[in-house]
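Hello,

Our lab assistant flagged a job as stuck in the queue for most of the afternoon. It eventually completed. Since we weren't sure the result was trustworthy after the delay, we are filing this so someone can double-check. Below is the sequence as submitted and the structure that was eventually returned. Let us know if re-running is recommended.
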Amino acid sequence: MNESVYRRKYQDEHILVCLSSSPSNAKVILYAAQMKTSLDARLTALYVQSPSPYYGTSSQDEERLKQNTELARANGADVKYIKGDDIAFQISQFAEANGITRIVIGRSMHRSGKWLKRSLLDQILKYVSDIAIDIIPDKDMKTYSLNRLGGLFGFSWMDLLKSVAVFAAVTLIGEVFYLSHFSEANIIMVFILGAVVLSLVTEYQIYSLISSTASVVLFNFLFTEPRFTLFVYETGYPFTFLVMFLVSFITSTLAVRLKYSAKQSAETVNRTMILLDTNKMLDLAETEDEIIHATLTQIRKLLKREVLYAKEVQKGDQKYLNLPVRINRMDIGCFSVDTADQPLDTDEMNIAQSIVSECSLALTNMFNRHAREQAELAAQNEKYRANLLRTISHDLRTPLTGIYGNASNLLNSGDQIDPVIRNEMYQDMFDDSSWLIDLVENLLSVSRMNQEEVKLQIQIEEIGDIIDEALRHINRLKDRHSIVFHRSDPVFVQVDGKLIVQVIINIVNNAIKYTQEHSRIEISYEQAGNKLLVKVADNGPGVPDDQKEKIFDIFYSCGNEVSDKSRSSGLGLYLCRTIVEAHQGEIYVSDNDPHGAVFTFTLPVNEVNINETDPDIDNRR
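-- returned structure --
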């Protein structure tokens, strides 16, 4: 079978390698990694942890488990953690649910004893029938066994004091019952109750065993005849003691399990809330730094230990557990969790990995969003370039042709042309030149404002001075219109004065262009709260409702019988909107009464101390 056919046949292979703290587990992982490479398959590493409160591992086993986990990750495995008492059942269920096609386990994972070795494999085969299982033998390694007594035996001075206090209280109550001639059954119930209480207030199961034994011994010593001895007269007492011990031990064990379940439920609720909060925080995050910071915060909140982030996966440091951030099967960063003092349990690992996965998804969405924005910006820039070329080729040709023709006639036969006509030709050349200058200025301003970072030259300006400056640069046709400026009380604003002057020039020139001769154009301003409103009103034909939003778009020009007589590049009002929005303001057009248009733009007003204003303000008045 050639390589291409071989890869097509096994392209859906999904390999599951079982993790453990066995020294031989590294050999199993490397075998699975080689199989992953040869089959071009997915590789998942699974660790099954017992949910029992009595389950524990030594520090040496925990260190080996962490090393084996890092080895699996380094070989491209997706590490998963689950809980379950029945290892074979948990492995088979995980394999069925995740589309596993091949399971790789090591002999060291089996319990001691020949029958138990066959039993684990037989159980897996009993649960799954269509999954290949590879057993990796290692005759040199000792058989690995789970330590299920880690949570049973332990010593605590506080628990010892609690035990003494509980049995002192139980003994005192039993003595009161004995002196009050209560039945022995009542005293037995008190001792059983003491064993249950002790199991609830202590940490280790050994205290439940001790309390059950102590209950029998104390009851026999203090409250059976003959008292203060371990002998009994009645032959039924040994059976009573046995039942008392069993009832006490079983109820205390159930109490411990109930306490453990309640603790686990509380931790589950807390971790679920952390995961939900993570989703909300990542939804609100907009930048890569915000996403990483939110993820770091939530992992630290979950684990309550040191967590670091680096752009590259840190290898070789056994103090930290690495949680890589992967996008498109590539590691772009790594969260490192300090596990020197205590390793992560299964639930902590699963939630931490879920948070990191949410981080990867948020970063992926952010990168995709930026890519779409860049594509849209590129398409928009391409559209602008096409429109600009069309504008230049169409709008520049007419005035340049006029200038060229008039200049040629004046050079060749200027003396023979009637003086009146010659002056008109000069005037046409002047108008065409002025129009070209305005167009070039607007093009340069648009180019500047469309840059990614517009640096405004902010200064303290008096709005009346800005309007006066703008009116001095209105085109020569202003004499054919009545332009009135209503000056009010001085209002100081922090703006780029040159740009605001250009806004007013463009709006007034637009009013001159789109209104009939001898029309009235009024300029005014007023302060409304923390905003300054600047208005340019005319009594021309006005702006149709369907064009009020469009007229601020680039290269858009509306036509009427007045404006059709002159040229329009469609840049002036677009530039006005860009400049005003750069100053955190807005611009809009409304109807004038009884007819005409009112262009209004707003600027934010800041409190300005006149004594601290720019000394050049008075010089500009």
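-- support follow-up --
The delay was a queue issue, not a problem with the job. The result is valid. The longest strand covers residues 330-338. The chain has 17 helices and 15 strands.
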